[in-house]
């Protein structure tokens, strides 16, 4: 696999060839990764997968016209031909008045910050097999589990490099390890499935496979014999593993492209109250060993911790250089190489109420652990998704519930969110347990 230095040099070479072919400006990314994954089902190895990939993406500008091309070939002749092809394509493209590289004076200068994202990249297939086996064994050992969809363990090492024609060139490498289990409880038409997983930058930080497997099994068994609910308004409590999807909808609504197109239900809300006053939302690309930490964005700009929402107030859009120019603002360091914007370690800060108190205030409601479908209108904010979870009565979780739909409008839902104090950093997007009052449940 390419080293960071080799990847950076390849990106620089592609940019140089683009300029030699007639581009006014160019940038290039080089990515390389090697991964190993082992899957176990019913105690036997089901799959062992080993992959190694390398890729180059080159973007060129001729005036206000641009084109992008990609290749998995890195020899000099191939890169030269790729650059010439990209420049020829750009000359035929329509003009975009907002196109161009990031502002030169905003580029990251000096060494990129060391975020401790690489643990040495040691990957032992036998250790992965043992980890996957232990996860599945623990899940199948839970009373009530009747079948398995498998346990798995993975290890991945990756290198990312970016170079621009106006002075930026850097690269970094990462590791990622995962363990998961998915099992089935019950028999016949009464079967229920659930899963659990953990993912970490450092192998030594992984949750034990036994704990992951036990969690998967217990969650599957807890879902047995679900009831249906009558339709009507109910407070909804979102488990953290599904509550994070609400932040995903929020990010889509404050992305620069949606704002410039006028296709966001939050397009007029900058500097205004969007969430309840007790809500703060942060994006932290500098968290050591963070699953989405990074030293620079997709355009070579430095990244830094950002408060997106403070005391419920929307503080910023997420802008790449093109959308920033269109809005007359500055880019925020959230550019994604694939186009548009992306966040890093996104989270909603813990609230003041303990989880038990948040639930205890609910006389009758729904605790949601699974969401199904994508019934979101990002222009209007209308929200409707299939769901499953548990009935809450007198502040206690009492019975599993299935085959329902929850609905509302994201503007109203954001304004009504109450976060609990149980925030745990487990994923790329993290939230505490969230309660949203005033939603509608469609059931029987």
Write a structural description.
InterPro entries: Metalloprtase-TldD/E_C (IPR045569), Metalloprtase-TldD/E_cen_dom (IPR045570), Metalloprtase-TldD/E_N (IPR002510), PmbA (IPR047657), TldD/PmbA_N (IPR035068), TldD/PmbA_sf (IPR036059). Residues 27-90 form the Metalloprotease TldD/E N-terminal domain. It comes from Sphingomonas qomolangmaensis. The protein has 444 residues and is an alpha+beta fold. It folds into two domains: 4-222, 2-Layer Sandwich (PmbA/TldD fold), CATH 3.30.2290; 226-444, no CATH class. 24% of the residues lie in helices and 36% in strands. A hairpin with a 2-residue loop joins β13 (382-393) and β14. The longest helix has 17 residues, at 4-20. The mean pLDDT is 96.
Specify the helix fraction band: 10-25%
Question: What's the CATH H-level homologous superfamily of the largest domain?
Answer: PmbA/TldD superfamily
Oligomer: single chain
- CATH top level class name of the largest domain: Alpha Beta
Gyration radius from CA atoms, angstroms: 24 Å
In which order are the strands of the major sheet placed? 3-2-1-4-5-6
**CATH topology label of the largest domain:** PmbA/TldD fold
Question: What is the mean predicted local confidence, pLDDT?
Answer: 96
Query: What's the number of structural domains?
Result: 2
Strand residue content = 35-45%
